[in-house]
Amino acid sequence: MTHLILASASEIRAKLLRNAGLEIETIAARVDEDAIKASLLAEDAKPRDVADMLADAKARKIASKGASGLVLGCDQVLEFEGRVVSKSQTSEAALGLLKEMRGKRHSLLSAAVVYEGDKPVWRHVGQARLLMRDASDQYLKEYVARNWKSIRHSVGGYKLEEEGVRLMSRIEGDYFTVLGLPLVELLSYLNLRGTLPR
Fold it and tell me: Which end of the chain is more exposed for a tag (fewer CB within 10 A), N or C?
């Protein structure tokens, strides 16, 4: 099996890949995500392009260090009312965002880019659409207080694999895409190229 390096310290992405039977190594890619995102948004880049370029930057960074085998870079952005939403820096900001999004739709765009050597050989951006229920101020306040330690690194202020699923009334799209990795599409690519047995 071809060696796969995940250019990330994301525990959930590593777990998804290992649960699918892949042998992986994780190496955190140190890129200035905020600077990349700010530059793209200043050029009116679409949210899906922001996700794609962030994933590309991570894979490229690790691949450029002479990594052997395939390097996988991933990123996820949340699009709400035409804008890219960043991770909340404080619990108060997370609460404000959840109040703003309740009763409305938003999208999660999960990008994956695979590098082999110094070139990208595959890329995909998966999209999931979510409708948040009209939760009360009290519930949202208690939700953030209970879950802040877990959700503080999550765009949107929730994790669907945890209590965050209770915030939603409808989800359209692939569960793995919601978690930040278009896994089915990635596995299909690895099968097609012969990296995984057919």
Answer: C
